[in-house]
What does this fold into?
Amino acid sequence: MAERPEDLNLPNAVITRIIKEALPDGVNISKEARSAISRAASVFVLYATSCANNFAMKGKRKTLNAGDVLSAMEEMEFQRFIAPLKESLEVYRREQKGKKEARKDKDKKADSEEQDKSREDDNDDDDERMEEEEQNDEEEVDN
Amino acid sequence: MAAAAAAAETAAVAAEDGGGAAPCAGAARAARLPLSRVKALVKADPDVSLASQEAVFVLARAAVRSGAGPGRAELFVETIAKDAFVYAQQGKRKTLQRKDLDNAIEAVDEFAFLEGTLD
It folds into this structure.
């Protein structure tokens, strides 16, 4: 059964929880409404991705980056999302950096070779592929 | 691979809690960011070659704000739920229904991209 992109829904539990948080206590959501909102969120991601990709292409880059997504928000007239998204991104970056430090220390202990450091830096190419491990370092090149 | 995804998600949520630093931050953590699902959506676009981890994170966050964290402004799901709820209230209902959503989509310019996509 071939899935259309819009059918790739975000988890129901997440969607339901967020809807309930947004609405006053005692409000219910019909199954159809919940499912429609979930679908809308998927469409939102698809549309934002496409928009963001335009910015990446304009910048002659093959890799979509966070800046492209923020530009997409502006383009889609969701400017009010931008500030909170930037804040979240900062927190995320700090957290990723912390993970990177922790991994470097772990590698040092494991191998105790100088080459580990340069090996990680040279792995920037691998970082861009998001198919594989999510634990790869974020690419810091085009922002 | 699945373990890595779970770890990344947990870490992302933990980061948000760390930013809040409130004792009840853990309890307030409502939902985990579905990074893997968002990634699947991004990959579904044939024009997209690659996307950085950060890009996926920002997309997930824009779609689905999860729990406590910096910037309490509403993001997509919350925004559309609230806008739709206005119509439920007009109809004196306490249950949000599909038609409320349709009304919101029709009424709000920013939701125009959703027209015709939810069926």
Remarks:
- Residues 119-143 of chain A have pLDDT under 50 and may be disordered.
